[in-house]
Write a structure and sequence with these properties.
Structural class: alpha+beta
Helix content: 10-25%
Order of helices and strands: EHEEEEEHEEEHEEHEEHHEHEHEEE
Largest sheet: 9 strands, mixed
Number of strands: 18
Distance between the termini: 18 Å
Number of helices: 8
Strand content: 25-35%
Radius of gyration: 23 Å
Shape: elongated
């Protein structure tokens, strides 16, 4: 059986995203498998997996992500989480939730953060974690990221207090960096103790499958990939007649005005003239992704991905 579409995988701790892709490839006996957003080995939760031709659609996924994380104060580590060497350990029994809450607004909105030294960002063709393991110190410029919301879920006081947060953010945000920087602002140090991604690119953890659940569905012949139409619902749709669909598969550029004026115009009366767009055959078949471009005289639907 050939699988085309997406899998909402609930990634277990201890596996890299690459490990997960390899295991899915073996379970489904597929050559083409990719993931939509790296998770550190210790992090659990939603890992979007593309299957077959859907790997070409990964670039069009939404960028919104959400997490539930625990920050432990009084500690700093080389990796900004509990996986790394402890750099400092100083109990902070007097730290209060009120003090922490006064600093949280500094991490909401468009902010700049320095990625952790142990991260997958490339510098001079090398991953930062590769350089860090060799003891090399590299200057990495701050990156602009966006955090939409931070919600306090729980607070546990003590010598090493812990804060549970729900975080909604854009792509590229390092929750480890938030833990590190929040601890620094409070002058007690901080590191990420636990992290689960609860949402990524429109995939929610409530609908995710563990490897065990995936294997059971495969054994019972019940596994069905998520359709591109569900994953790409944030993109506007355009519907083509059989004639235009044929031209689409030939890689031709199609005048938007002609599509709207065709006998199928009722389905395209509210085409959002923005790019990219989902492209469908009138029978509901997903045809790919199109880009609206300006020609000398009109707007053109140009094929980006022909599915």
């Amino acid at each position: 059986m050939t699988f085309e579409g997406f899998l909402n995988l609930n990634k277990p701790a201890g596996m890299t995203s690459h490990d997960c892709v390899g295991r899915v490839r073996r379970l489904l006996q597929l050559k083409r498998v990719g993931h939509g957003g790296t998770l550190d080995p210790a992090v659990t939760g939603v890992l979007p997996i593309a299957l077959g031709k859907a790997t070409r659609l990964l670039q069009f996924l939404q960028h919104h992500k959400a997490y539930k994380g625990t920050i432990r104060f009084g500690l700093t580590t080389a990796t900004d989480d509990l996986e790394g060497e402890i750099l400092t350990s100083q109990p902070a029994p007097d730290l209060s939730l009120e003090e922490v809450q006064t600093q949280l607004p500094n991490f909401i909105g468009k902010i700049e953060q320095f990625p952790p030294s142990f991260s997958a960002i490339q510098v001079r063709g090398k991953r930062l974690y590769e350089l860090a393991r060799k003891g090399e110190t590299v200057e990495v410029p701050a990156r602009k990221v966006e955090v939409f919301s931070l919600e306090v879920l729980d607070w546990r006081p003590g010598d090493f207090p812990e804060l549970d947060l729900a975080i909604s953010c854009g792509a590229g945000t390092y929750i480890r960096a938030i833990a590190r920087d929040l601890g620094a602002m409070l002058n007690v140090g901080g590191t990420l103790a636990r992290l689960t991604r609860t949402e990524s690119s429109g995939f929610a953890i409530e609908q995710s499958l563990s490897f065990a659940e995936l294997e059971i569905q495969l054994q019972e012949n019940k596994f069905s990939p998520i359709l591109p139409s569900e994953v790409l619902a944030h993109l506007g749709p355009i519907v083509l007649s059989p004639e235009y669909a044929k031209r689409w598969f030939q890689g031709q550029r199609l005048p938007i005005a002609e599509i709207i004026e065709s006998r199928h115009s009722a389905k395209n009366t509210s085409i959002p003239l923005s790019s990219p767009l989902q492209v469908y055959h009138e029978d509901g078949q997903f045809l790919g992704i199109g880009q609206v471009v300006e020609s000398d005289t009109n707007k053109i639907l140009a094929p980006q991905i022909v599915f």
